[in-house]
Amino acid sequence: MRLSKAGYFADFAVYPSIVLGLLTLTLRHAPSVVWIEWSIACLAGIAAWTLLEYAIHRGVLHRIRFFAAMHELHHEDPEGFVGTPTWLSLPAVCIGALFPLWWKTGFDFASGVTAGLMLGYVWYVGLHHMLHHWRIPPGSYLYHRKHCHALHHHARQPCNFGVTSQFWDRVFGTAHRAR
Ligand SMILES: [Zn+2]
Ligand SMILES: [Zn+2]
């Protein structure tokens, strides 16, 4: 979806603030919760995000006509302010992760996993912006990601749906390696 400049960059203010809020609430609500437990839940959320990123990009943004039409705007104009508005992604993460996990496992675990999902999402959005807007010197992680993502945009066969990593592309056989 085409966004205003403010709408495009809103994720970078909204999500880190919510992650801080979740952490503060968890510590206030359960001060004895050790950092390591929350951190493990958070890392699990980040790992889950990498799979979600792959599944959403491949299964929704390239397969379901309504969303594919919106995603196509990005493929046509990779440097434009095109993305998912925060008012759509935030309810999705609350309804899809925070509330059901809270209900099933309690606030502390739900808060950690949701924070991880949000951090993974911001990492993805930020990295995707860098890949299309920054000049990146060869030889780095960013350069490799940039090549892989360029192949997603320009290769003939559908490939490289993961933006932050190629792990799930390798698992599901859609990896196209950059040289
Ligand atoms: Zn795509
Ligand atoms: Zn792109």
Q: Assign an overall shape.
A: globular
- Please summarize the sheet with the most strands: none
Secondary-structure-derived class: mainly alpha
- Poorly predicted tracts of residues: none
- Summarize the helix and strand pattern as letters: HHHHHHH
Can you offer a commentary on this structure?
The protein is mainly α. The protein has a domain of 122 residues. It has seven helices and no strands. The radius of gyration is 17 Å and the shape is globular. The model has no long low-confidence stretch (mean pLDDT 93). One zinc ion binds next to helix 5 and helix 6. One zinc ion binds next to helix 2 and helix 3.
